[in-house]
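hey so i finaly got around to running the thing on KHG/KDPG aldolase from Halomonas elongata. pasting the sequence first so u can double check i didnt mess up the copy paste, my clipboard has been acting weird all day
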Amino acid sequence: MLEVTLRTDCALEATRRIKEALPQASVGIGTVLTPAQYRQAEQVGADFVVTPGTTEALYRHGVSSPVPMLPGVATVSELMIGWQFGYRRFKFFPAEASGGVKALKAFAGPIPEARFCPTGGISLDNADDYLALNNVMCVGGSWLTPTPLVEAGDWNSIRELAKEAAQRFHH
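ok and heres what it spat out for the 3d tokens, dont ask me to read them lol
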């Protein structure tokens, strides 16, 4: 599963190319901020979209779209709004700045059925702490694609980081 974030001008084209080269891969678009960006993700064939936070307009678009959304939340109030729209799985962002593992443990009290993908401050050093929680389904982190390696085109090192993470976190 890959997430291409809309932080660069080439993100949509990169998603389209990845889908062509690896049709078996599940490729989503992240950092979706508006329904217009959501529609662009649909048009390039994204398998899912991820938002850092979620507006009512995004929820309304998401419930009618064939492309599933992982809505971003940081508080119980935001979680409850998503719950009203029928969502049960959420991105928890920014995880570390929003209370991290302690916050997710607290979220499990009032809404134990909710599941999370924490991102933002997740690293090889703390990922296991998150993955040990019953309400965490996966973690995300940019440690797999450090900017210096991407800028240098060091795809072998990035591949090795991905292999290491897959071996370490495969359950």
